[in-house]
Design brief:
Elements lengths: L12 H14 L5 H12 L5 H20 L14 E2 L32 E3 L9 E4 L1
Antiparallel strand pairs: 1-3, 2-3
Length: 133
């Protein structure tokens, strides 16, 4: 559930057991409001989902298309997320329009400094950003 930080998994018993071990040491339980929201999301009306999925797909495709048009950026199409992880590795070592050397993904040079993008150097190799529609 986007924004609620709640989810569930189904799969082979061994895989779920391993996931449970990791999850139990890295997160806490969701608050009661999130739990009830999840119940309603699963049991409530589902008729709006196809239209919402199309909206998110259209937005995703627009973001991927626009980012892919920028020299030095490659942006794979995500298969199930509403955010993208474009690689700016092709920009590293170049100079921004303002004359600054782009030697990392932080601090971000324009056009990213005015966009909701986050460097992922801690979680991924340098040169990747996370951004959403």
């Amino acid at each position: 559930m986007t924004g609620w930080r709640i989810g569930y998994a189904a799969g082979p018993v061994d895989l779920i057991a391993a996931m449970r071990k990791i999850q139990s040491q890295s997160t806490s339980n969701p608050c009661s409001v999130s739990q009830w929201a999840a119940v309603e999301a699963l049991n409530g009306p589902q008729d709006f989902l196809p239209a919402n999925n199309e909206t998110f797909k259209r937005r995703r495709d627009l973001v991927v298309s626009m980012l892919s048009q920028i020299d030095g950026i490659t942006c794979p199409v995500p298969e199930g997320a509403f955010y993208v992880y474009p690689s700016i590795a092709g920009l590293l070592g170049k100079t921004s329009e303002g004359g600054a050397l782009i030697d990392s993904d932080e601090p971000l040079p324009p056009p990213f400094s005015k966009r909701p993008a986050s460097p992922w150097s801690l979680a991924r190799p340098s040169g990747f950003l996370q951004t959403s529609e």
